[in-house]
Design goal:
2 domains, alpha/beta, 379 residues, binds pyridoxal-5'-phosphate, Aspartate Aminotransferase, domain 1, two-stranded antiparallel ribbon, 13 helices, 39% helix
C-alpha cells in the first residue's frame, strides 16, 4: 500500500545557518562577552571593511538606524528635504522623518522598480540636502546618474543597500565606492545576523561620529573619562549577532551563486512567452550585477493580489509583497501625499508578489512554484 506523502510548505525565504555557526554562537554565549564592542564585532567590522575595498565600516543593530545615523552624519535635519523612492520598505522614508527632515518622493522606473533618475531631477529644490536611493531586490540603481546629480547639486547620497550585499555596478561592488552606504542583516537578507546592519562611510572622522551616534553619543577617554556631545541611540550590534555575521559573510559568495542559479531556473521555467501569455511581468534578467535578493513578478491588473496569494498558500507556497507604496500609508497621507502622485509605484505596490528564493531551495522547488503560478495566471 502506498502512503501519500504530504507536500511540505515552501516559505518565500529562510536563512541558511550551518552547524559551525551554531557552535560559534554557543561559544560566545559560554564566553560571557555578549555585547559592547567585543572581539567578534571588531572582527566583523574588519572583514566587512576588507569586503568594501578598505572603506571604514561600523556595525549596528539594524539597517534602519544605519540610515538614520548616515543622515545625522550628513547634518540633515529640520528644514531639509531628502529625495527617495516611494517603493521600498517604509524604513527608508521613516528615517528621513525621524531626523526631522521632509521626505520627497520621486517615482520609480516601471521596469527595474528603482528610483527614476530623471524624476529625481524634477524633485530637487534649494532645500534638498540628500538623495536616498534603494537598490531594490539587489538590482543596482543607475549610480552614474545619481552621483552625477549629487555632484552637480552638492548633495549627499545615502544608499539604502539593505538588500544589495554582493551586488555590483559596472564591475564595482555596491558599498565599495560612493558616499555613505547602508546594509541590513535582518533575517531575510542575503547574509543575516538575526537583526543587524552596517554603514560604510568615507573617513575615520565619520566612522568615529557614527560610533557616538550608535551608543548614546558617548565618547570615552582614559580609564574613566566620559562625555556626551551628540544625541545618540542604542544601536550597537551584539557579539552574538557579529558571530553570525562573520560566518555568513564567508558564505556570501556561495549563497549568492545559488540564488543566481535559482533565478536563472525561474526564467527558464517561465519561458520567453510567459509575459505575453499572462500579462504578468518578470524581473529584469540581470545575471551580472544583481545579488538576487528576491524574485518577484508583477501581476496583471485582471488578477487581485490577495486572491493570487491565497491560491499560492492553498498550494502550500509562501509568497510576500515587497513593497506597498509608502506615500499611501496613513502617516504619509497625513503629510499631504495622495493617490495618483506616483502612479508607477502605486501599480507596482498593488500588484507585486515575491516568490520563494533562498539558497537552500532546489530546482524542483522552483519548478513547483512555476507550475503553480502558471496554473493560477493561465486559468
Ligand atoms: C530596502 C530596505 N530598506 C531598509 C530596511 C531596513 O532594514 P532593517 O530591517 O535591518 O532595519 C530593509 C529591511 O527589510 C529593506 O528591505
Amino acid at each position: 500500500m502506498s502512503k501519500a506523502t504530504a507536500v511540505p510548505f515552501l516559505p518565500f525565504t529562510r536563512p541558511s545557518i550551518d552547524e559551525a555557526t551554531i557552535e560559534d554562537v554557543s561559544n560566545v554565549l559560554r564566553s560571557g562577552w555578549l555585547t559592547s564592542n567585543g572581539p567578534k564585532v571588531q572582527a566583523f567590522e574588519s572583514e566587512l571593511s576588507g569586503f568594501f575595498s578598505g572603506r571604514p565600516v561600523r556595525t549596528f543593530n539594524s539597517g534602519t538606524c544605519t540610515m538614520e545615523t548616515a543622515l545625522r552624519i550628513a547634518g540633515v535635519g529640520p528644514g531639509d528635504e531628502v529625495i527617495t523612492t516611494p517603493n521600498s520598505w517604509v524604513a527608508t522614508a521613516n528615517v528621513i522623518i525621524e531626523v526631522g527632515a521632509t521626505p520627497i518622493f520621486a517615482d520609480i522606473d516601471p521596469r527595474n522598480h528603482n528610483i527614476d533618475a530623471e524624476k529625481i531631477v524634477a524633485a530637487i529644490t534649494p532645500r534638498t540636502r540628500a538623495i536616498l536611493p534603494v537598490h531594490m531586490c539587489g538590482l543596482p540603481c543607475d549610480m552614474d546618474k545619481i552621483y552625477a546629480l549629487a555632484t552637480k547639486h552638492s548633495l549627499r547620497v545615502v544608499e539604502d543597500a539593505a538588500q544589495a550585499i554582493g551586488s555590483t555596478w559596472k564591475g564595482k561592488r555596491i558599498g565599495a565606492f560612493g558616499d555613505m552606504v547602508s546594509f541590513s542583516f535582518q533575517v531575510n537578507k542575503n547574509i543575516m545576523t538575526g537583526e543587524g546592519g552596517c554603514l560604510v562611510v568615507n573617513t575615520a572622522e565619520e566612522a568615529e561620529l557614527s560610533e557616538r551616534y550608535r551608543l548614546q553619543g558617548v565618547s570615552r577617554s582614559g580609564l574613566d573619562g566620559i562625555d556626551v556631545d551628540v544625541l545618540g541611540g542604542k544601536y550597537n550590534m551584539t557579539e552574538i549577532a557579529a558571530t553570525m555575521g562573520l560566518a555568513q559573510l564567508r558564505q556570501l559568495a556561495t549563497f549568492n551563486a545559488k540564488r543566481l542559479a535559482l533565478a536563472k531556473h525561474y526564467f527558464d521555467g517561465f519561458g520567453s512567452d510567459f509575459e505575453a501569455r499572462t500579462g504578468a511581468e518578470l524581473p529584469v534578467a540581470d545575471f551580472e550585477q544583481c545579488n538576487w535578493h528576491m524574485f518577484h513578478i508583477v501581476l496583471p491588473d485582471r488578477v487581485t493580489r490577495a486572491t493570487f496569494m491565497q491560491r499560492m498558500l492553498d498550494l502550500k507556497i509562501g509568497v510576500g509583497f515587497h513593497y506597498a507604496a509608502i506615500h499611501l500609508f496613513t502617516l504619509y497621507r497625513k503629510r499631504g501625499f495622495k493617490r495618483g502622485m506616483f502612479p508607477v509605484a502605486e501599480r507596482v505596490g498593488r500588484q507585486i508578489v515575491t516568490l520563494p528564493l533562498f539558497p537552500a531551495m532546489n530546482n524542483s522547488d522552483v519548478e513547483r512554484v512555476v507550475v503553480a503560478v502558471k496554473s493560477i495566471l493561465e486559468s
